[in-house]
Amino acid sequence: MRTALVIGTGLIGTSIALALSGRGVRVHLTDQDPDQPRTAAALGAGTEDAPDGAVDLAVVAVPPAHIAETVHALQRRGAARGYVDVGSVKSGPRRELSALGADLTSYLGSHPMAGRERSGPLAATADLFDGRPWVLTPTPETDTEVLNLVLELVALCRAVPVVMEAPAHDRAVALVSHTPQLLSSLLAARLGTADEAAVRLCGQGIRDVTRIAASDPRMWIDILSANPGPVADILSEIAADLDETVRSLRALESADEAKRGQGAAGIEAVLRRGNAGRERVPGKHGAAPAAYETVAVPITDRPGELARIFADAGRAGVNIEDVRIEHATGQQAGLVQLMVDPSAAPGLIASLRERGWSIRQ
Fold first, then answer.
1. CA 316 to CA 310: how far, in whole Å?
2. pTM summary value
3. Phi-psi sector, 291: left (phi>0), alpha (psi -120 to 50), beta
């Protein structure tokens, strides 16, 4: 791939353009908002200049509702050898392209499974897709040359290709992406009317659960409008679980010991089902996060403290598999949680103590 055209210079489009430009591809940028490609170009993502002729690959990074019309318009003017979209929904755009009479041989639907709660070109990074799954939904009609171009795109962005059928993809993202966004927003909305005293008690748990509630509502309206059925199906199942959980909690208030026992059993069942589901979520190297042991170290909010603790862990010969920071409310301090292989934890604890760190048990 020598040349590419990126249509839509928000977070995803600009991140793709940064990755391609950084690997020697000449990238042309365009967007309905003229300020966005100007900003993306200033970041080094490519050029605002129009290409002289057909590029190798056109990357359509627009909301799902506009994918089909954008791809069709590009095809009519012969803008590229191949066309790929990076929208978060796959079945609808393909149906719309077919209805428009578009050339489905030169088109491939895809979805990089990466993002941030911030949007726009200023939030973009060239490494956004590193090691992340990138779903491809080819059909028997897809031209081999186009598939190879998109595989090259995925490789240049250092992502991992995953081939799925479009309907299966839409059901999957409803579960792992779209529904979590709504649940995060629903819980965060409770904070909007909560007492100030309650909000001040917010800890890492509520921060983790509500992080993505900071996402752009306009973007999510576009996404959810393109995949409402599968999301509604999952929410219906969750609603049934919530009803059962509410009944179990009410039973715990009962004066009847048998009812309290039933309530406790109901809550335990929900929690254990959650444990089982959480263990299936892949972590680093495909291992479950539960396989790591956490070493918790109190840390002050001073320049260089994080670098020092990571360096001391390195001197101990221990690889940090993952890390989390829990901030103390109203204080210039926090708790660094270092996730390591269980066999490495005792040595790390001893080494950090020798270097003056205290360990939270």
1. 10
2. 0.77
3. alpha
